[in-house]
Structures are given as C-alpha cells and as structure tokens.
## 1
Amino acid sequence: MKILTKIVSFAGLALTIVPPIMFYLGSVELDSAKVYMGVGMFMWFVSAPFWVNSKA
Amino acid sequence: MKNSLFKKIVAREEFERVSIPDDRLKGSKGFLGMYAGEHAAGTEFVIGPLFVAHGVSAGDLFVGLLIGNLLAVLSWGLITAPIAVKKRFTLYYQLERIAGKGVVNWYNLVNALMFCFLAGSMIAVSATAVGIPFNLEMPTLTDWMPRTSGWVITVLLMGAIITLVAIQGYSQVSKFANIMSPWMILIFAAAGIVGLAQLGVGSFDSLIATANEVIWTGVPMPGMTKFTIWHIIFFAWFCNMAMHIGMSDLTILRFAKSWKYGFLTFAGVYLGHFLAWLASGILYAVFLQANAASQEFAPGAIAYQTLGLAGAVCVVVAGWTTANPTIYRAGLALQGIFPKVPSWKITAIVGGITSLAACFPALVMRLLDFVALYGLLLMPMGAVIFADFYFSKKFGFQEEQALNSHTNFSMPAFLSWILTLAFCLFLNFSYGVDIFFLGLPGWFVAVAIFVVLSRIQYPLKKQLIA
C-alpha cells in the first residue's frame, strides 16, 4: 500500500514539473500544462500524507 | 521549520535549560532536509518580485545573490554553529546566563512583536490568493493602508483560522508543512520555467537578453528606490541575520553532531534565496508584461496567472505554513515573559495582533525593510553571545556574567543592545545609511561595547576573589 501511495505521490510531482518543461519546449499549451499541474497537486496532496512523515 | 527535528526542538519540556546529551544529537540528513524546506517559504513569493520592483539589474542580482548567500552560509558555519555545539543550549537560556532574565524578557517581547508582524505579512500574502475567486481588489506597491473592507474581512477570517489551528498545537502544522515542502520547491522551479517560456526565452543568448531587458531591467518602478549589487549582497546575507549572527539558530544547531553542520544551510539558501527569488521575480515580470504599468502587487494573483490553480494554492500554503510556526514561536517568546498564562490564551492574543497587522499591506510592500529591521533589532544580542564566548577570557571579564554574578540584569548586555541600535539609528538618520547596511557595523559596535563595559563591571579579577 505504501509503495502504491509513493508511486501516486511521485507521479504527482512529475505532473508538477514535467508539463512546464513541455510547455517550454512547445509540446503542450499553457492551459493544458496548468490542468496537469493541478492534477499533480491533487495527487501529491492525497498521497503524500500517508508516507512523508512516517519516516521521521 | 518543517520537520520532526524542529518538533523536537520546540518541544518546550525538552532540554530547555540543560545541555543536549550526546545520545540525542542528530545527523546531517535531518539538518539538510530541514534547511532545504525552511527557506522555500511564503516570503519568497514577495522578495523576488520586490527586487524586480526595486530595479535591480540582472547581473547585480545574480552575482549579489551568489555572494550574499555564501556570506550567510559562512556566518552560520563559522559563527553560530561552533558556539551551538560547544554550549548546546537554546538561545534563550544562553542569553539568560549572560544577560540575565530581565534582559531576556525585553528580548522576548521584541522578538514576539517581530514574529507577529512577519506572520501578519504572510497572512496578507495568502489573502492575495484566497481573494481571487471573490474578485477581491488587490493592494498595490505603494499601499500602506487596506483598500477595501473586503480585504480586511478576508485577512481577519484567515487570521482567525490560522490562529485556531495554532492553538491546537504545532505538531499537525509541522507535519503538513513537511508534506508540502517538496511540492512547493517544484512549484518555484515550474514558475521559473513557465515564466521564461512566456517571455520567449529559447536559448542562452535570449535568456541573457530577456533577463537584462525584460525581467531585471535596472529601472525601479514608480515610488520604489533603486537597488544595487550591494543591496542584494547585504540583503541575502542579513535577511536571516537574527538566525545566524543573531544566534537564534543556536536552538537548532545545538542538536548537531558537528559544528560543520552549520554549512548545511547552503541547501536552504541556494534553493529558497536563489532559485525561488529568481523564479518569483520571473513570475512578476510575466505579470508586468501582461499588465503593463500595473501597480498591483499580489503574489497570489501573479502565481495564478502563470501557473493556474497550483500556483494560487502554493501561495496560500506557503503563506500559511510560514505564518503558523511564526505565531507559535511568538507565543513561546511571550510565554517566557508570562509563564503562568495558559499557552492557548497567549497564542490567541498573538493571533489577534498578527491578524490586525495583516490588514495593512505595508507589511508586504515593505517586507524587505521589515526583514532587515527584524534582524537588526535582534542582532546585538547575538554579538553579545559571540563576545562572551570568544573574548571573556582574552579580555579578562566574567564568562556568562549574569549566572556567575547571580544577577537578573546585566547592564553591559543591555547597554550593548540599546547603544548599538542607537548607533545604527544615528547612521541611518544622520548619514542616510540604508537599513540593509547597518547590520555589519552594528555587530562590531555591539561586540566592542559589550567587551568594554563587561571589562569595567565584571572584571575577571573580581570573580576570582569572590
């Protein structure tokens, strides 16, 4: 379960940083990049609480 | 402060008045993570754009940040950390041993007030994002007073919520901030990338041209003073003056296994005070391109325009996660003065002051000056700790004079504080020396005054005879 939430979290982080890079390279429109970043934020918010603090 | 290490440090019952035992020392990884998270905060959304508004040039900013941040890291590593690992006391207890409880109470009062204003500015920053769906009229660069009743209501509501959360305790907020930290750092990076794309940067040459001609043009906005490389160097060096040469971070670094951990602050300053300041400056330049000659200064709206919902949420989260521990710290400082008042009452009072302060956009628009003032006000006490540690034996006065002479009020420490601030005020009023440059001469003056007065009032010979 923890592995699954970690995968979702890192996918969320990827959706936060990859669309801006793709926008910079001209592969995606800004509006789409904003949507992907919003989805990435949601994925990080719902998954990270399950594992980020558990290591501490 | 965003992780379990800080939670341990602020746990009030833990090692408040004793040296940290060896088995409770922390490794370098915890410090690296904590500093990386700590310096990518709500203030970064304001400072980067204010550099743009102050008309700093691209070259001055880049070189100034490299040098200023390096000086800050060296200050932590060479001045704060060696004393922290040798003594292993909190700032407050170390200061109490030198200056006495009476002086520490005054220090706590000033500290608490400064924390309230800092937290207030962060609530205001968050409000610029929260107000977007309500079409709230945003403050402008020259605003000192609130523009609309809607702004006041938004800020007071946010202040009330943040205060209620702070009353519940620090733990949950710390966990939340810990979770948000990696995402926020990526949002800052995303801001820079999207911003550069929107400004048409496609190569290294166009990056240099855009940086010089569009983003950091060297021309200040109307009503703003011109910043030079010296402003940037000294601001980057001294924006955390209270923490390094002001010695606040004794409380954190006392847990370090080695004094070299002080240098780990590089992770924080070069992420937060370099990458994040550059990125938020780029965001503001994009905003200015789309809203030519606009005087509006609203980090939330600026981030929303370029990054959409994720940008606006990041501003709210960054402001909140900075405001909340700051309110908590202000409460701790005040509780040192009023130990019998319940902590929830103290936090409620602090939250009330903070919320009122947040109504005034001046705290955001003059954040650079405020941050400099905050460090300057607390710095002399750090100089006192430094002088006590290194010069007491060399110049022949009692080490930890309040403790060893059983007094609650060390006049040399108190006068070092007051006279140093008077000296800085004199430099500012009489010679027009900018507030950003007062910390350096002030520190030397504070050390000199403390050494001379201590030599007179607490000479080592007296202690030996006694």
## 2
Amino acid sequence: MSISRAAVLTLPWRLTSVRIEAQALIPIVILTVLMLTAIFADVIAPYNPEIGTLGDRFQPPAWLTGGSTAHLLGTDHLGRDVLSRLIFGARVSMVVGFMAVIFAGVVGTVLGVLSGYLGGWVDQLIMRLTDTWLALPGLTFAIFLAAIVGPSMWNIVIILALVFWTRYARVIRGEVLSLRERDFVRLAIVAGCSKRTIMRRHILPNVLNSAIVIATLMLGIVIVTEASLSFLGVGVPPPKPAWGLMLADGKKGMMAGYWWLTVLPGTCIALLVLSSNLLGDWLRVKLDPQLRQL
Amino acid sequence: MTGGPLLELDGLSTHYVGARGTRITRAVEDVSFTLDAGETLGIVGESGSGKTTLALSILRLLPPGARIVSGALRFEGEDLLAKSPREMQHIRGKRIAMILQDPMASLNPLFTVGDQVAEPIRVHEHASRRSAWAQARNLLGSVHIAAPERRVGEYPHQLSGGMRQRIVGAIAISCEPRLLIADEPTTSLDVTIQAQYLHLLSEIQRERGLALIFITHNLGIVARMCDMVAVMYAGRIVESGPVRRIFDAPAHPYTRALLESIPRFGEADVRLTAIDGQPPDPAALPAGCAFQPRCVKAIDRCRVERPPRFVVGAKHGAACWLCG
Amino acid sequence: MLLDVRNLTKHFPVKRGLFGGEVGRVRAVDDVSFVVETGRTLGIVGESGCGKTTTAKLVLLLERPTAGEIRFDGHPLGSLQGDGLRAYRRSVQAVFQDPYASLNPRMRVGEIIAEPLVTNERLTADETRVQIHRLLDIVGLPQRSATLFPHEFSGGQRQRIAIARSLALSPKVIVLDEPVSALDVSIRAQILNLLRDLQRDLGLSYLFIAHDLAAVAHMSHVIAVMYLGQIVEIGEARAVARSPQHPYTQALFAAALPSHPDERRDEIILMGEVPSPLNPPAGCRFHPRCPFVMDRCRVEVPTLRDSEGREVACHLYTGVVSAPTGVPAG
C-alpha cells in the first residue's frame, strides 16, 4: 500500500521550482545549521557533554573576564562544557521534535482521513476521542504519562506524539470533508473504486500539503513541550543533555549571576521555535495557493 | 456637458508586470473606441482576452502590479488618467458605476440591503440616513423587488441570486450615473432570471438615458442588448462596429468562427464549426497576428506582421490583413 | 431501451434541532420517468433546483432513490450488489462540469485515464499503456500527455481527458452534466463535436444535462424539461424546440438569448423566483408563475399526457380548458 508516487514526487519538485525569499531563507538556514549540528555533534563538540571537571565549574563564556577559550561558552555547575552540551542538546531537541511531529502526523492524518471520509459512527467515535483528548491539558497530560512510563528518549517521543496528534486530526478531517465532495472523488466512485482505494489514492495525497504545514508549525510547540518536560525533570533523563534540562539546572546559578547557563539554552530553544514557525508560515502560503489551484 | 462622446478610449494599454519586472503581460493593448450617451456597447472576449482588465482600467481600479502604460481615457471630455485617486473616488459610483458577475462578492454579508443601497447616496450626495433609506426603498422598487419596505432590512444571504443581482443594480444606479459597466452580470443567473434581469437593464437604460458597456463572452447578450460591439482577442480589439453589421457580415475570421461555433435552434444536425487550439496565454503571445495559429485563413504575412485596423464599413473595422 | 427510469423520487430530509428531528423534506426529484435508447441522447434542461443534477446522481448510483426504480438493460438496479453493481458501473460513466475539479491534481493523466481499467480489470502494465494511448488518440490528445499532470492542460484539454477516462471501460451510457458550461466559447464547439463523433462511432447513449437550451437542442434526440423536481414536458427534440407546449418550456425558449439581433422572440417574462424545493406550491408547481394559470392549476397536479407528438404535464392540454384567469399569482 503505497501513496501515489506523484504525491511524494511533486512536493520536492514544487519546492525546487519555487523561489525562496529572504523571509524563508533565514529560518531555513538556521534549521539546516541546527540539523547539521545535531547530526555531526560527535565531530563538532569539543568535549564530552556528560562529563565535567568539578574544578572548572561555573566558568563564564570566553568573552567575559574569567573565561577562557578552552570553554567558549563557559561551564555549568558540574564543570561540563556548555557549548558541547548545547550541541548535543540540539540532537535531542531535533530528534525528539521531528520524530514526535512525524508520529503525531501519521496518526493524526490517518485518523483525520478515516473520520472525514467514512463519516458515520467512525467519524463520531474518532471525533469524540479527539474532543476528549483535546480537553486534557497537553503539558499536564505529558507529565502524567511520563511519570507512568518512566523517562527515556523514545518514551518522550511517543508521549509527545500521543499528546499532539489531535491537532492534525481536526484540520485534516475538515479538509477531507470538502475534498470528498469534489468531482474527481465522485468520478472515482463512478469508476468503481473501493473506499479504501479512494482514501489512499485520492484523499491522502491531497491532504499531504496541509499535513506538512501543520507539522512545521507543530515543531515549535513540540520542542517547547519537550523543553518544559525536561525543565520539570520528567523529560529526557540526565546526564543526556537537553536544552530544557539545561534551563532547569541553570536556574540554580541565576542568583549567583551565572546568566549564561539559562540565557544560552533559552536562546537556542527560542531560535528553533521561531525558525520553525517562520518556515511553517511561509510554507503555508507557498503550498496553499497551489493546492487551491485544483 | 460637452457634445462629444461620453467615453473615449484612444490607444489604451494596460500591462501587468510580474516576477520583479521580468515578465510583462500585455493584458490590454492599444484599445480605442468611443461611446455616446445612451448607447450600449458589448465587449466580447474569452478568457485571456483582457476584457475585465479593460473594464478595471476604465474605472482605474486595477490591482497592484497592473498599470495603464499608454493611451488616453476621456469621460465626458475629462481626462481620467490625470485624475487623482480622490477625484476618481468621486467619479466612481456617482458618474460611472460597475456591476460584477458574482453578486455575493459585491454585497457585504454583514450589512443590510438598505445600508448597502443607501451607502453610495450618503457618500456622494451627503444625504442623511433617513433620506438615503427612503431613496433606497424607491430604488428597490425601480428594480422590481417586491415588498421593498421589508427587503431593506434583510441581509444578502436571505435573498435569491436574481434578487441579489438586482440589488447590485440598484446600488449601481443609486446616484444616477451616466455610464454603467456590467462585467458578466448574468453568468451566474438562471436563464429565465437572466431574461428578467436583461429586461430590467433595458428598462433602466431607457428611463435614465444610461450608457451601458456589457463585458461578456456570450454573443447572445450582445445580440439582445447592444448597439455596438467590440470583439477582443489577446488584449486587442480585432473587430468593432454596429451589432447588426457584425452579425450579418463579420469581417474578422475570429468573429466569424465564433458566430459559426455557437449552436442555434433549428440546426440540430449541422456540425458546429469548431476553432482549433485554445485562446493564447497573454504572457506568451505569438508573433504577428495573435489569432493566426488558429486561423483557417492565415496567410504568410499574418505570421510575421500584426495587422492594423482596417475600415470595412460605417463605423465598422477589423484588424486583419484580409481586410486591407 | 437501455436505461429505463420509472417514477424516480429522491427526497432529502431536513433535520433541525439537537436530536435531528425531521422538519421538512427537500423534494429534489419527484416521480420522474424517462428512457434512454441505445445510441441516442436524452437532454435534460432546467434551472436551479429543478433536480437535474440529482437525477444524474441517481442514475450514477451516487445517491439511492427514495422511491421508484431504474432498469438497465431490463434489470432493475435496486437489487444489484457486488458483480451486478460492478457490471453497471462499467456500463454507465460520467463527465462533469468543472474540468478543474474532475481530475486529481496529484495523479498523472495516464493514471487518471487508466484508473477505471485498473480498478475493474486485471491488465498488465503493457496492456494498460496500450489502452491509455488508444484513449488519448480517440479524444485527440498527444501521446506524451500521459506523463503530464492536469495543471499543465487547459480547460478544454482537461475535459478531453475526462472524456477519455469515461470511455476507458467502453461504457454504453455516459452521463454528461454540463460538460461545456465551464469552457470558453470557442472551445465548446470542439467538445460538442467530439461528443457527437464518439456517439456516432461508438454507439454511445448520452444523458446530456445542461442549462444552455441551444446546446441541449443541438445535441439531443429527446428533450426533457424539468421544473422543481418534475418533468413538465418530454418529447423529440425537434418537436419540443420548434413548438414548446408547456408554459414553462415556452418561457425557457423565449428567455434563451437570440443568435442574431433581429431575431425577435415573444417576450415571456416570468414573474417571481423559482420556489424552493423544500416547499413546492400545491397543485401544479409552476402555477404561481404561469401566465395561463387557471383555478384548476392551484389544486390539481397535472400528469404527463400525450399532446402533439410529446408528453406535457399541463392542464391546458387535457381537453378540459376553463377560462384562464390570466393574472399570475405572486
């Protein structure tokens, strides 16, 4: 069971033939840099992020007095190099972020398509499920689940996916409802296609654009949630570096004036979320008119 | 008011500039015609012919990216191209009015019918709300809307398509304009409603001495309503003249082919004369005459040089080498 | 007789309120009967709300009728399941109005055309390719179209693609719902000619639905005029077009735009709007707008009766004519 090749092929085709304006260039560059950082973390990072020398604790960044080029961005309360932790933290954020968004997307889109196309009791069931799910406050629910299953990177991915699939389901369902009335779907019925075939061949490829846009916009939310979980201590477990965790640890040094322990990871989170939001916005405009051009 | 023509276009050209100046679409090119008071002109064209851009150019309501690049545009002797935006605002709605195809798009769903009909009266004539509403009620009566006292308080979505289009008409004539431009006003209407509406427009025109420009792809409307017709193709007028003459003896091959391709009653077994190919993309026009790729009578000269307008009869001209 | 439609009725319930109680019914199609013969075209004409599109959907089994039956080749459709249903779908295909919505923008043209084949038959990739090429040929599109996407084609070309697809299973009947209304005027003749040629070459039957009277009169052998869910006049196209009998048909033809400025028609301007199918008038549904309304019309529903070579549902033609009251109501 494969989605029409055309659906997957036309997307990159469309993007390459599309002019990338400055508005999108910056977020794309930032995201690419972050992605590369995450992939090549082992090579780039100067130190092991999980081990520190207690003698070198709370060293400020290189450009302040007391800092040295040995630790460009200083060290934390355990003497671990902040730069290395930020770099490896990128990996956690990107992996968790992307994976969660993709999982949520798959589940949400499939349920949205089933719900929108089949209607009837299937629709009722899924929509009531979505409503109930949405009623649960995302972060609290995530904490709850994390407390139950215990922290690990993959558990967090699954938890985040479970929390956020509903955003997709609703929107995709709405699109499917209008797609269902289009002539080419009617003609597929007239040609004798089964419901399953129609959903696979006609509905799914045409909601893919929306799903991608939602995914880009969700990335920011997911990452903030992950950071929040880490901040609260129920995210990715230490000593694995995660930006949220760094924020939590850095809290301790705030009063003593060790601002870099919070500002630096906070800036990274903000940068990632901002970039993904800007990209999502741009993508929505780029993909939508072409979608509407049907 | 001078004794000259009501509306005069001379070599008017409107271009769309896209892709940061690299792509120029010659939507309207070198269009000239005159319209006298009380006359009805039909501008006929298909998609890409530039007819809607022409209408917007006359009203100077062009979207960003479109610009009138050359030519003259005179209304009642005044140069419209020299007017400031504020001056144009006083002209639009009061002296030149426009009706569009989709009445739902022309009416604001959030305001009552009364408000919308009264609005131009309040804006242009600075009438009080009460007096404007009274005039609105009268106008609704003029467009044959039953129970106007009740209708003024209703919202657009409560009315049928035909009624909405009539309300749009009422708004258009509210300030007694001299010229009404109607862009495909009946395309979305049912056949019998269309007949009612055209009947209404004829009546209004007679009563008020209004000049009418019909923009349409439907030659039937031209036959029914118009005195003069201008046929547009790829941004240019290819033939223009009195309606009867053009229907009897079309000079341009495009006009002739159009007339022959339309099914008529009583000719059920006749094979329609189809025109091969499709209307050209205004951004990528062929060299020479724009119609030449589809023309059965094209000669070599047509492929190379664009024909000027040749006079074929009284007020009748066609841009075709075969007429020269 | 290929398609035999008898007393076809479709009512849509209108539900309001929290628990969906039925507050009314939209009588979209009410007791409609007609026949489509092999190799001939039945044209259905009418304005918004007349039920012609719903009739098309019923024939295509996109909706199930509330009452009445459709027989294809003698077999009633109501009981069809599985194989029987599949056989019907192969025989009856459709072309719709909007060439921009009829084709899945994500599929290549070749895949779109071949979809009915792929769904219903087991063909090898080569056999499918041969069929695609054959169909592209029939509709006059170049072979390389198969690998392109719909957005690379114009409206007229897309309609050709839709026609090619409808022919894939070699159907016997094609339902054409406003096939040229959305096309440019100069392209319409191309498509209408193509449809006529296909009918002649392949022996197809058409159910041609349109609001453009001239096009319908040109293409059809038999014309049915619908108003508010009912057929008010049905007969040989030539007869109906030359001398329409039902007042509504007369108004329709009178309202049709002339093809020459000197062509004068009797101006029959109907009063009022088309009433809603939710609450059709009692008696003859056309009576509030009819210039010849009689007392009888407000009360008694007219049935289709033979009159001068066609059937008309109008009390003017039942032989018992009371003096018309002349002034239309409403």
